[in-house]
Amino acid sequence: MGIFSKTCEYAIRSVFFIAHRTAGQSGRVGIKEIALGIDSPEPFLAKILQDLSRRGIVQSTKGPNGGFYLDSASLERPLSDIVAAVDGNDIFYGCGLGLKQCSEINPCPLHNEFKDIRNKIHLMLHETKIGEFNAELMNGMLSLKK
Amino acid sequence: MGIFSKTCEYAIRSVFFIAHRTAGQSGRVGIKEIALGIDSPEPFLAKILQDLSRRGIVQSTKGPNGGFYLDSASLERPLSDIVAAVDGNDIFYGCGLGLKQCSEINPCPLHNEFKDIRNKIHLMLHETKIGEFNAELMNGMLSLKK
DNA sequence: ATAATAAAAGACTAAAATGTCTTTTATTAT
DNA sequence: ATAATAAAAGACATTTTAGTCTTTTATTAT
Ligand code: SF4
Ligand code: SF4
User: Fold this and answer.
1) N or C: which end of chain A has fewer CB within 10 A?
2) Which residues, in sequence order, are CB contacts of A144 under 8 Å at separation 6+?
3) Name one GO cellular component term (chains A, B) (predicted).
4) DSSP character for B29?
């Protein structure tokens, strides 16, 4: 497994996808199209998006012309909100070697280097906004497909 | 979960433990003592060490006064050898968003930042030698216990 | 109002990670 | 040689993660 769980990878990619497909115009995009757009198993992604919807990270409406979209507030959220919602905060504060009490007083051998990496991840996810890549995704410079 | 699997966390901590307990003197240390020393479930750790032993990352002998130890070559190995043996190479080369073809030509939105983090992890694990912390572990400045 | 549409909800299955227990094999001290 | 010791091997059990399928609820166009 990578840094994130599979669930979280799908979550991030789908939210990027929804963002770039619905920014500006008030359109919605359906689960089938999203699943296709990010190469993910559709029913599994549905579960994930239901959860993100309940948590207010994505917006959705049922019925004809319904689907998922992002309001302007959601577009401004940092990526870390998705990660925290799906995988929790372990990646920001957790311990690389599985110790409970990470501290400067009682550090594990990799303490300093790990802190550095953790901070880098923290920074990346907090400074990156969900809507940030819309233009590049639109013109095909970035990819969300396997 | 953290950066590594639980199996890998135990692996790293146990190898550190064996290293500092057997460096210099030609002693061995038994599974019970190791499990105690790193707060891990003994039978599970036994599995892990059997695997590391088969792969030549730790050494062992059976019978009275038997146990695990590290020869001088093993002490010089980089941490990355343990991680690669247990968790594979995904953490060094894998994709943060689960895409198959990470490339400069077809990058995902987090390409550059991820590359940076991945390189930092790579560096940390390749430059850190297994026997590197023996002195600090000996005098209690570093901890391997939950 | 009704039918069509699309997400929400919930029950279910499959696979992988984590953890336990029992038996076997190798080593060594006697 | 024998008995004691300690790891190796392998069969299980449990939990978590990943993935599927069916039914229900909300929305909208007619
Ligand atoms: S730096 Fe070391 S002690 Fe601190 S959380 Fe990471 S592994 Fe634990
Ligand atoms: S940087 Fe982006 S494209 Fe490259 S491996 Fe990471 S997630 Fe994939």
Assistant:
1) C
2) A13, A16, A17, A37, A38, A137, B97, B99, B108, B109
3) cytosol
4) B
Which phi and psi (to 5°) does residue B61 adopt? Answer: -135, 150
Residue type for B48, please? I
B111 lines ligand 2 (CB under 6 A): yes
Residue B128: CB partners within 8 Å, gap ≥ 6?
Answer: A109, A110, A113, B78, B79
B131 vs B24 pLDDT, higher one = B131
Contact in structure between B10 and A98 (CB atoms under 8 Å): yes
Contacts of B6 in chain A (CB under 8 A): 98
Closest C-alpha to A10, from B112, B144, B108: B108
B131 touches chain A (CB under 8 A): no
Q: Give the CATH number of domain A6-86+130-138; options: 3.40.50.2000, 1.20.1260.10, 1.10.10.10, 3.40.50.880.
A: 1.10.10.10
% of chain B surpassing 70 pLDDT: 97
Of A86, A94, A102, nearest to A121 by C-alpha is: A94
Amino acid at A53: S
Q: What is the pLDDT of residues B89-103, one digit of tens each?
A: 989 888 888 887 666
DSSP A133: G
Helix (H, G, I), strand (E, B) or coil at A60: strand
Please tell me the distance from the alpha carbon of residue B143 to that of residue B146, in angstroms, as a whole number. Answer: 8
Res. A64: pLDDT tops 80 = yes
The two structure tokens encoding residue A60: 């959705």
pLDDT digits (tens, 9 = 90+) for A86-144: 999 988 888 888 887 666 777 888 888 888 899 999 999 999 999 999 999 998 888 89
Q: Residue for token digits 């998922």?
A: A68
Residues 78-137 of B with CB under 7 A from strand C: none
